[in-house]
Amino acid sequence: MNPPKVTVISTGSELTAGRSQDTNSSWIANELFGLGYSTEKFLVLPDDPKLIRDELKKLAGVASKENPVLLVMTGGLGPTEDDYTLEVVCELTSSKAVLNDKAHDRLQALYRLRGKGFQEALTTALRQVSIPSNSTVLNNSVGIAPGFWSELQQGAYLACMPGVPSEMVAMFKEELVPLIQKQFQSGELYSDFLFIWGMSESLFQQEFIEGIEALKNGKAVWGVAAKKGFIRVTYQSEDKNLVQELIQKTKEKYKGLCTGDLFEEFPKLLSERKLTLGTIESCTGGLAAKILTDRAGSSEYFLGSVVSYSNLIKENIVGVKKETLEAHGAVSEETATEMADNGARLLGTDLAISITGIAGPGGGTPTKKVGTVFIGTHIKGEKTEVKELFLPFKRELFREVVAATSLYLMYNRLRKLV
């Protein structure tokens, strides 16, 4: 038997209408990959029983004993009239809905707490604790509705789970994983990734991917995701050495622009070298400090931040010279240098990052356009460096890209120092 062709399906009209975001699919695909199963595609469907039925029939129709199909579907297991999963699967498997005793007992206990009239309310919710008669139950340790595992035809297996992420995650790990591993053999897949800073998806494909034979002939697959200030590039193959070769070739091409997961590596580097860091931020309003302090244990290396949004604070608190501000302006290399140097002294840190720029939409001039930013990196015992960038993004994206990029610039300097 070959490894299954996997499709991850999310149902719900709130998803197709754009009112909610599907986070389940990517989580499931990532977990399946860790088990050795590669997801072929994602599918998002509205609460339309005919459409759900037709798609399941089509996906199951290509299955055989030697070439199985695994469909993992979330949503549609609630008590309301627009929850169609149970109805559709019963029809496809020529079965009837039966109460699951364990889930029914939990539902009764819940409704009994509501007091008077609970029995009438309970009756309308029974579909939530029912499963197709010829399916295997997937118990719900977090919520009420059980999931189920059904064989739609020979070689075609469907796992149905609640759409609530916390319930789905617990059910997947506790109930579904053992079933999948028992039913299917998995292929050995290897994967690795890196970040490339200041790079776009299209340019990376044009400059690098199109010239790699292993990615053309299918020996390896690649993926790229645009993030705030960088792209995340992933390579995947059954050949571990090929994955590492692709990673190495990428590093050779892009050199210092490449990092691993910076948000893991930077804190680790600071801790290993016992260095302290502070930020002096203007246009980012403390976002760089937020990224740093989002990580538990950051107090070990991050001492504090000054949001010097106005010239008054730059001058009176940070200590930027009035003459510097008048001669060069708040958004300048000179101001960024003084912010970094004085900020390190003020905060008592080994390292300091300074950020001053024009986030927009107003504030630009013919010589300093909206999107201009200066990022300073102060390292004790080293000359402070300032990088000028022009990032013509909308205000929110500009601030996020600048904050993340400032951490990269400091990290990149530090890792070059022995």
Automatic annotation (TrEMBL):
Stored Pfam families: CinA (PF02464), MoCF_biosynth (PF00994)
CDD domains (UniProt xref): cinA
Signal sequence range: none
MoaB/Mog domain ranges (all copies): 7-183
InterPro entries xrefs: CinA (IPR050101), CinA-like_C (IPR036653), CinA_C (IPR008136), Competence-induced_CinA (IPR008135), MoaB/Mog-like_dom_sf (IPR036425), MoaB/Mog_dom (IPR001453)
PANTHER family: NICOTINAMIDE-NUCLEOTIDE AMIDOHYDROLASE PNCC (PTHR13939), NMN AMIDOHYDROLASE-LIKE PROTEIN YFAY (PTHR13939:SF0)
Family, similarity comment: Belongs to the CinA family.
Protein name: CinA-like protein
Organism name: Leptospira johnsonii
